[in-house]
Q: What sequence folds into this?
């Protein structure tokens, strides 16, 4: 594949925020979908394992993606910000051929502190705007938004300073994404984050579940769990600025939707959509095929 051969139309690529612990040994529905969206047998994938403490993580995903039919898989060997700066040109050259970019789990701060403000980060945004699929699992999902949950504690109740925020990579400017959502009881920290600034949409993604956001801002859910969507834009009252550290935070006027596989959500209109019927899916598939 030549650079630019997959850029027809110049529509931004799909964003896949995966809640972590995705199935890697059975049907591998989510990882298989990532390869399909990246071009199937023509997929050229780049893996970033900066978030992980384990050097072999990138190679493990490379093996997985090859087993799912990818044409090529390259692992970016970036452990530190110095690596990101020194390998800038080499990394950018790899991205010119990439149809899919995948970030592994670990610590989201490792990713943001290494890539933030670099030429590599700028190249990632450019290639996504040209159609490259961008996916992240666990920490790789948390770093996708502009407003990133960097760390926090578990619990179902929002509390003062339950969560810390930082700037992420900015692929989803109007969202806040949390992962391992139900397994690690993270509703409290997601809602606390929205009490600081109610403008973004809160997205809590369960394990082995993906929130897939297309170029039109429509999110589809895939996988075994659910995606919790919290809309605080109509918040009438919060005392998050007044309570003491560790005290519960009042928030009046939240809207919450729980989406399972097949459900969709229009992130621009902030409206949940029921699963399409089989007939409608088939009609859309035919229409999509005729437009290619």
A:
């Amino acid at each position: 594949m030549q650079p630019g051969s997959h850029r027809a139309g110049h529509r931004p690529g799909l964003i896949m925020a995966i809640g972590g612990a995705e199935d890697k040994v059975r049907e591998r529905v989510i990882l298989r979908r990532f390869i399909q969206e990246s071009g199937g047998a023509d997929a050229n994938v780049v893996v970033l394992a900066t978030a992980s403490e384990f050097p072999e993580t990138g190679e493990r995903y490379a093996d997985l993606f090859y087993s799912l039919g990818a044409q090529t898989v390259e692992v970016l060997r970036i452990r530190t910000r110095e690596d990101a700066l020194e390998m800038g040109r080499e990394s950018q050259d790899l991205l010119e051929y990439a149809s899919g970019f995948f970030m592994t789990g670990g610590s989201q701060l490792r990713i943001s502190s290494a890539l933030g403000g670099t030429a590599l980060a700028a190249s990632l945004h450019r290639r996504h705007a040209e159609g490259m699929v961008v996916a992240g699992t666990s920490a790789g999902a948390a770093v996708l938004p502009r407003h990133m949950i960097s760390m926090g504690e578990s619990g179902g109740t929002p509390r003062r300073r339950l969560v810390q925020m930082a700037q992420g990579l900015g692929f989803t400017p109007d969202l806040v994404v949390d992962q391992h959502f139900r397994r690690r009881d993270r509703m409290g920290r997601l809602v606390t984050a929205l009490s600081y600034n109610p403008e973004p949409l809160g997205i809590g993604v369960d394990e082995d579940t993906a929130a897939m956001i297309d170029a039109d801002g429509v999110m589809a859910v895939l996988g075994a769990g659910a995606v919790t969507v919290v809309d605080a834009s109509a918040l009438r009252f919060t005392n998050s600025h007044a309570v003491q550290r560790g005290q519960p935070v009042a928030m009046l006027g939240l809207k919450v939707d729980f989406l399972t596989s097949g459900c969709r959500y229009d992130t621009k209109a902030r409206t949940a959509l029921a699963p399409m019927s089989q007939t409608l899916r088939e009609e859309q598939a035919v229409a999509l095929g005729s437009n290619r």
Q: What stands out?
A: Residues 15-290 form a domain with the Rossmann fold fold (CATH 3.40.50.880). The chain has one domain: 15-290. The first helix runs from residue 29 to 37. The first strand starts at residue 15 and ends at 18.
